Each structure stands twice: as C-alpha cells, then as structure tokens.
C-alpha cells in the first residue's frame, strides 16, 4: 500500500517540540519562512545533496539547515537511552541512563557546548562517589537529518544505549538550542583562510595536540608532498563536521556489538526470571522503534535473532530430544511474532522485505531452528460468510487438521511475505472511515465486499493473517488504519456468525440426534501463534483509553497496577457502535469459539495463558448498561451457536472447555440476568473428553487424579482444566446460596461432569464453609448439597484404598452431617455399606458420631440420644461381623454400656476365632477384656489365641512372646484349674526352650490365685516336678536338648561362647527335676560323644561343666 503521510514525532512534555519555534508562536509571530523551509530540508536531505543542488548556499541558510538538523524531540533520545519510553515526569528509576542524564542536565553539569556543522561537543561533570573527586567527561555527537549517527564519551560506557552523559548533552541541545554556539562545518571556515592563516592554524593545532596528532600530521604531509600519491588524486578532503553523504544510510546510532553481546549474555542466564524480562524489554524496544518508523527496529531484531540461533542450548535440546523451557519457548514465540510485524510493514521498500525474507528463509532451514508448537494450519481457510457445519465424522476432521510439513517459528513470518497492501478494496478500507458501496459503484466479484448494512468486509485472506495485518499497522504507527481494518474484520465475523446460525438451524435436528459434532474450525483463534483475537481486542481497546498508555521502564519494578479507564468511542459510519462494544464482542466470540485442543504441552498451556490474558483485558473494563446489553446478547448467541460455539448444545469430543470464559460471564451477568448467567455456566460445566471416556453406567477404571497420565496422554493440561471446572462450580454454589432451585441444578451438573474426587471434596468443603457463616444461621439446602457431594466422593473412592485423603474426608463428612442434624448422621450410619469400609465406619463414623462434643452440638433429648447410640452400636456390630479382625475391638468398646450389644460383640469375636481370627487380634481383645474386669473371658480368648500360635525353637524374639507371658500370668492368677488347662496349650504351641523355662520359673515363684470355685489360695508355690508343671518341665528339658543338637549342627567358633551360656541356662532348668543333675550329666556326655570332632568346643564344655 502507499503509506500515509509520515507523522512528525511529538515532543516530550519536558520541553518544546522545536527549539525557538515555541517562543515565536508564544509572542504571536508566525515562524519565518527560512526556518520552515530549513526544517524540511534538514529532515529529508543530506547536506551534500544541498551543496550539489545549489551552486552557492548563503551562510545564513546553511546555518539554519545545520541548526535544524539536530533531533528536535526528546522522545527519540529517551528511546535510545532506556528500555521503554515514559515522559520525564514519570521517571523514577535512577539506573536508567535517560533519568541520570536528565538529572545531570537539571543540575547544571553541562558546559562548553559547541556545534560545528553536524558535530556537537561539550563537557559533562558528574559528582564522584563519597570521598572521590568530581569527574569530567568529554562528549561528542555526530548527527544527520534529525538523527544521531554516532556518539563518543570519555566514560567508555559499554551498554546497549546511550550513556547518561550523551543524554545530558543531547537534551541540552534540544532545550537550550539558542544558547549553543553554532559554527558552520569546519571546511567552510578553512575555505575563508589564506595560505598564512592556514599554516598558522595547522601549526597551532599540532602544537596543542602534538603528542596525539604529530605522527599522523607528518604522514599526511609526506603523502601530500608526493605528487602521485592517492591523497593527491582525490578532489577535496574529508570533513567530519559536514554531515553525511547522499549515499550514506540515514539511521540512528546503534551499537551492534553491544546488542549481540548483551543478548548472548542474557540467553546464557536464560533460566533466570530477570534475564527473560530484559529480553522482553528489548523486544518492546524493537516495537517502539517500529512505531516510530525507525529502521533500527528491524536491524536490532536481526541482531537479536542471530544470537538466539547461536544459543548452544538449541543443539543440546535437539540432540537429547528434549523440549526447551517454557520461558525460552515464550521468547521464541515473541521473536516469531515480531518478525511477522516487520515483514508486514505497510511502508517498507520491496528490496527491504526481500532481504528480510531471504534471512528468514535461511534461518528457517537451520536444524536448530525451533519448530512451532501445536497443530495449527499454515493453509487456513479464509473467512466465509456462509460456512455451514459438516455432519462428517470426527476422524475425517482430524485427518484434515493433520499436518506433516515442518514449520518453524519463522514460518508465519515467511508466509506474511505473501500478503500485499495493493488490493484496491483494502486500500479503500484503510483510507476512509466512510467507505461504502456508494463510493465504488459495483460490488461484484467472487466474494462480497460489504455486509447488508453497507459496512465494508475483508475476506481477502485467512482471519489470523488479517488480524496480524491489524497488529502490523498498529506496530508501525498507523493506529487509524488499524482501527478501520479491525472494524471491517468485526463486520465480517458478525456476518459469518449470522450465516452459521442460519445453517445450524437447518441441520439442528440431525446434529442433536447424533449427539456430537466435528470441529468446524480446524484451528482455534485463542492460543493461535498469531494471536488474532488478542490483536483485534488490543487495537480496539487502545482507541478507548482515556489517557495515553505509556511503557514503564521497568514494568516489574513493583509499581501497583492501575485499572485502565475506558470510554465509549463511536465507530465512524456505524451509528450506535463503539470500539469498546466491538472489543467486548470480539473477545467473547474468540473465547467462546468451539475449537479442538492443539497438540503438545506448550501449545495447550498457551491456550490457557491466552484465555487468561484476554479475560484480564476484559476485567479492566467497567461494565456499564450498554456493555451489559452486549454481554447478554453475546451470551445468548453463544448458547444458540450450535457446533460453532463452545457453549453449543453439541460438542466435539476434544473441544477446549469453556470453564474460564464461563466464570467471567457468570460473574458479570449474575447481577443483571441471573437466569442467563446460570444457564450459560451450567452449559459450560461439560468436559467432553471425560464424558466420552466414562460412558454412563460403565465403571470408572480409576477415579483418582493420576487419570491424566494413564487415560489421556494427549491432554497434558487436563488437571488444570479440571481445576478451572471446579472453580466455576464453586462460584455457582456460592452465588446460589439461598436459592434451592439453582443449588440443586448446580449439584446435578457437578455430579454429572466432575470426575475428580479431590476436586469434589474441595467443592464439598467450600459449600459447607459458605453454608455455615459465623454470624448467621446455616443454609440447610447448601449444607445438604455439601453432604451429598461428600457422599459421592465416598462412593467413588470406596474401592480405592490407596486414596490417602479418605480418612480426612470421612471425618469431615461426619462433621457436615452433624451440622445438618441427627437424622443426617443416622442416615450415613445406616447406609455405611455403600460409603465406608468397616474400619472407617467403626473407628471414625460411629466413634466421632457419638463423642461428647457431637452430642452437645446436636442438643438431643434422652430418647433421641439413645436412638443415635443404638444406631452407632448396630453399625459397630455390623462392621465387626464384616471385618472382625479390625473392627471387633472398636465394636466392643462402643457397646460397653449396653449389655446385649456387648454380648453380641463378644460372641462375634468367639465366632471369628473359630473362623480364623489371628492370635494377635485375639490377644488384643483378651487384654481389653482383662482391662474391663472380665478375666475369665480374657482367659477364654487367650486360650483360643494360644491354640493358633506356634513359636519355634529359635524364635526367642517372636512378636507374641509378651502375649504368651501375659496369658500365663493371667491363668496363674485365676487358679490351679486354669493353670492346669493352659499348660497343654503352652506345650503344644511354644517350642522355644528359654521361653518355656521362663514360664516355668514364673509359675514356681508364687502360689496360683483363686480358682473359679473360690478355693483358698494354696499354702505354697507349685513344684516343678509335680502336676500340672511337670509336663511343662519335661517339655522345657526336651526343647533344650533339641535346640542344642540343632545349634551344634552348623555352629561356628565365634558362637561357641553363646552356646556355653545357653548350656548354663539349660542346666538351671534340668536341675528343677529331682534327677536333674544326672539327666544333665548324661546330656553332656551324649554331646561329647556325638560332637567329639569339635575339640575346642568340647574343651570349653569340660572347663565349664566338668
């Protein structure tokens, strides 16, 4: 396209835009014609061109051209001395060179300023650090056609941008231009001198600087005196103060080496947040340069791109087959988007664009060049005003969307080289706010150019590309043209939606019968690499700001974010429309578009981020009555949108869920149209990929959160989406408090659509908290819903014992039921089979439900309290029958105060003992019985436990040792009869010699206690050689003999000492018998004969025992 007329840069608020001119206007005098013409020449012509065009240029004219050739706006100076532009009044960061330079200027640090032709020089004094002297810096600046072309400063600052001293001198020249001593280029002064004057001038110059220039002066003199030298063949002589030549490039000074070095260093620190932020600031600087139509924007981007491609991590990631980090991927995305803007420049020369495309093509072919994430098409269909939903199969649609070609992050920029600005219809859209059919006569052609209302349409290219064109217009400083094209695109989207709704109505019955649909848009617009919806929204919202947006020098320095005020700005040629309305409409259309989730973790994460960024933009806008009406209309259209809308009645299985968008709409619509707000939010609760994965009636393979990694490897962000779904449900539950109709509707939607027990639990907790405020009576309906959600979690996870939060959930459930009342508590007790495991029911539900605190909370009378206790006892007995191993003791404990229930629980234990209840559990219950004062029942259970027990000869540390000793002590305390009955059980169950001798010794220390008949305590302890202990003594002796032979079979010398000690204990047991000494001697003799080969051991035996 032919670029619109260039706009002159506006002056910085700190000073007049053009030195001297403001004073003249302030006095009411028009600016002199000489100055007006000198300004234009100074902006556009190199001084060499002026000299060639005119044979003689008067000195006053030369001076005015030289005067006006210095930059006139502080904005450019600021742009090249800070990471972002902000008027000086807003500058607060002392690290920024522009801020420091401004402070130096205001403190009077600049002096001895001299302008010789196109060269400015001066001194800048800077205070030293505490205890150090003041420093003096000599600064020189060359300029041409209102651009600084080179700088030099004694501080030797190595940075991307101009140092503070260059800033101070430049600002001095802009603000105090009339005070600067001005001279013509030095060659003009020299031409006025005769030979003597020239010789004197040269000699004085050499004398003043002989140490620096003398060798150069001598070399030049020698060459001049040599008749055939090269210097004598050239006409004239160079003059550094005479400005640039005609062929010289006219651009601002940019230190390429420093840009490359800084980008390289920042990329090497790519893992740090600060490095990413600085690189983004450099991208913002490129955009700022593009907006100022500064050619250095593309130049700086080229330098940055080359360094990005030289990042050594690219090759490493490619070699390892690993993806780059998210921060790095985002930087590459921004880089690719910037190149699209550059290539789509509306005013660049064809050769410039060709050069960029050549570079991009070369980079695109590099193996290390990152690929674009996601399965977005590079051959997107153009906007169609009459697109119809296809009832075709989902598989066909997926095949259509598949792409096999290699697309790098530069692919979009290469593709952007194809669109041109020369289309006549596009030119007329950009040129006028009132473009309509009457201006063009015929509207024929292969596609419509206006909608039925006569507003322009733009169907010339795919929608993302058209939006990139809008962004390019904004980026290159054409805001009005960007708005006009954005308006045409909105008109096109509206017309397309109208035709979509009409075509959907014709096929609605067929699609509803089918129950699912294919995606009509092969790629989504939110999360797209070109960010079409974001581009349109930002362009439209920018026109509605009440104050000019300024870029912070350090956006993340901690300053508080202000809510940006917007106002309705009318759309020319569209009565009743405003750009704010269009922005809201476009954002909702993009967010509500039914679209498939793209491939890849990063692409999916980008969809989420893009949604959040768009909604953040919308949340900045205060909704007035006009915008609320737009919101209501768009929400209704989304509900009726069929397969084109994510809120439609039928969904593609892998559609991007609408939870985040719906939450915004729900919150915004609720005060104005609650019915519409709830209908929209309830429709958005769907998560189709889970609904089709778990058909109705089919058991879920695993209801736990790790489902994402097992069942849905492609849905990398499923966990995040489910969390957003939960947040939407929570918002509805909170808002519906006090409204039973909507509460039950929300509950039904939650039960149907949320499949994560952790999220359901969170919803239940949130609902319970909302229903029970500290300063108001509870909402019983909401409490009931909280309880119902909790019961659903219990049912979902009943057979999943690995879920670690079940115990927490069970306790919470009892607490919630207590808040509702005793009937709710008894209901969960009566229906425990479908909700809890026996252990949970017996140890948590029954116990917690009957604690003193619970009973106080319920405030029950005696009859109701007894009813609750009876329910808990029944539950405990049922649990004990189902799982006696773990629930018998809790049941006995709970039934203590009711004789019949306690007897029933005891009988359950006895029956379970016959059915295989383990000895450990029987001993535990037996000890409980003794503790409760029931020693005979304890004895009975102990004998049952001993009947199941077997302790081998080498199990000295068996877990049941203490239980056996306790059982023996119990039987001894009961009397001789019980003791006699337990001895055979001990002999049969225990084969460990030390343990048997220990029991025998304990029983011989004191007389047995009272028996069941109440007989008198025996006068003296029982003898080990008489009944009933003689049987135990024989068993102990036999055990020692057996154990000794067993140990000697594989004994090693290092265990000889232990064995001798073992024999010592055996002798003590042998000696309890009347003939024990003889038995032990025979036993030893037998050992000596049998194991006589173990001479050392037998020697030890003889030494110890003879």
Automatic annotation (TrEMBL):
<keyword id="KW-0479">Metal-binding</keyword>
<feature type="compositionally biased region" description="Low complexity">
    <location>
        <begin position="13"/>
        <end position="24"/>
    </location>
</feature>
<keyword id="KW-0862">Zinc</keyword>
<dbReference type="Pfam" id="PF21055">
    <property type="entry name" value="ZSWIM4-8_C"/>
</dbReference>
<protein>
    <submittedName>
        <fullName>Zinc finger SWIM-type containing 4</fullName>
    </submittedName>
</protein>
<feature type="domain" description="SWIM-type">
    <location>
        <begin position="137"/>
        <end position="174"/>
    </location>
</feature>
<keyword id="KW-0863">Zinc-finger</keyword>
<feature type="region of interest" description="Disordered">
    <location>
        <begin position="379"/>
        <end position="406"/>
    </location>
</feature>
<dbReference type="GO" id="GO:0031462">
    <property type="term" value="C:Cul2-RING ubiquitin ligase complex"/>
</dbReference>
<dbReference type="InterPro" id="IPR048370">
    <property type="entry name" value="ZSWIM4-8_C"/>
</dbReference>
<dbReference type="GO" id="GO:0008270">
    <property type="term" value="F:zinc ion binding"/>
</dbReference>
<dbReference type="InterPro" id="IPR007527">
    <property type="entry name" value="Znf_SWIM"/>
</dbReference>
<feature type="region of interest" description="Disordered">
    <location>
        <begin position="1"/>
        <end position="30"/>
    </location>
</feature>
